[in-house]
Amino acid sequence: MHIGRIDESATSGDSWLHRVSPVGKLLAFALVLAAVIVSWNVLLVGSLTLSLAAVAVSARLKPRLTFALAAYPAVFALVFAFSASTSVLGGVTIVLKAVTAALGAIIVVLTTPYPYVFAPIQRIVPTIVGDALLMTYRSLFLLLEKFGNLLTAARLRAGLATGHPIRSARATTSALGGLLLYSIDLSQRSYDIMQVRGYEGRLRVPMPRSQAPLIDIALVLSALALLAVSVTWRLGWQELNPYSWALPILPAHALLVALITRRRGA
Length: 266
Known about the structure:
Layout: H1 3-12, H2 22-38, H3 42-58, H4 63-84, H5 88-111, H6 114-122, H7 127-158, H8 165-196, H9 213-235, H10 237-240, H11 249-265
């Protein structure tokens, strides 16, 4: 699931988008997501995809990681499109909407440390949900490391240098069983430590201030403009659809400029 690489990108990156406040990025993502949901014009959805791709490139995110993660929902969208769509164009639109929405979420996750992603959400969800989200993040890394160690030990003990499939399956099952017991023990120890340190039913994460307030405003206004275009096209589609060919021009130029700038700065 590339969890380690995602965390490295979110915490070690130093692009303009990393300096935007988490609230600004989440608000912009919500507006873009609304634009994706509203629109059923394939060229308009494609324009949204190009716009997000330009943002990802300009933020110097790793292309393989970013677009590989965004492509995962396409597999499930293909199944839905095959069963629900009545035309090829409609099926393409469904898949493209899923990829675009996923790309927006991936950009937020790759440029925002996990605690700050859920810090705004923590203000509105029940206490136990917010705390569980924060603790899950920490536990994932511990469990992944433990699973790797258990799997390596099981393979060495079983003599799996030859890669025998049955032995490999047994080793994996044994490692998963050990991981389950370890996760139960980890959760109990984590709770005991939190109690000793004075846990009172709420893990509070302070919200960081924006390092570029003007960029925050520009990002949200740009997302709002995309939503306005999407709503306008949905309401006046009969008159506007003949001009849909012009929609991808500006995002395509923005992506081209981002690619050139990134290559020169590399």
